[in-house]
Write a structure and sequence with these properties.
By secondary structure, the chain is α+β, with helices and mostly antiparallel strands. Helix content is 37%, strand content 20%. The chain is built from six helices and seven strands; from the N terminus they run H-E-H-H-E-E-H-H-E-E-E-E-H. The protein has a four-stranded antiparallel beta sheet. A hairpin with a 4-residue loop joins strand 6 (123-127) and strand 7. The relative contact order is 0.16. It comes from Cohnella boryungensis. This is SMI1/KNR4 family protein. Residues 22-146 form the Knr4/Smi1-like domain.
Amino acid sequence: MYERLAEKLKTTSALKWFPGHGAEENWIAEVEEELGFRLPPSYRWWLVHFGNAQLSGGNILAIAPPEHRDYYDGDLLYIHRLNKAEEWWVSRFPHRLDLFVPDSDELYFFDTSTRDKQGEFPIMCYDLMNDMIDQYASTFAEFLERLIDERS
């Protein structure tokens, strides 16, 4: 299903990842239980098969082993917990699940308010300089392919 993306990942120099560090299914289930929803299928595929990546000075958020989840700033749930602790953030972004915060003037997040028939959340790009949010990709797989294409 994700053959094209897997091929792209083999040949790109824009994205750096560390093989053998995929998330275990029970880690994903624990995160989903706390979040209260299932993560998108293409993101789950990424987590299990690759699990981590660096691009343009930032980490694409992953799921860390439970014993590291309370302090690892590359963990999806850790960042989400920090965001949820801020009342202003919750009121402004009730359906935002951060995904990628590069060293630049934008950040990318799942919009958990809507899900397509395959269970995918759209990925939004938040332009911090102009305070504008636009859809960047309709799936995590599309998001990753687009990032690789733009930054290769």
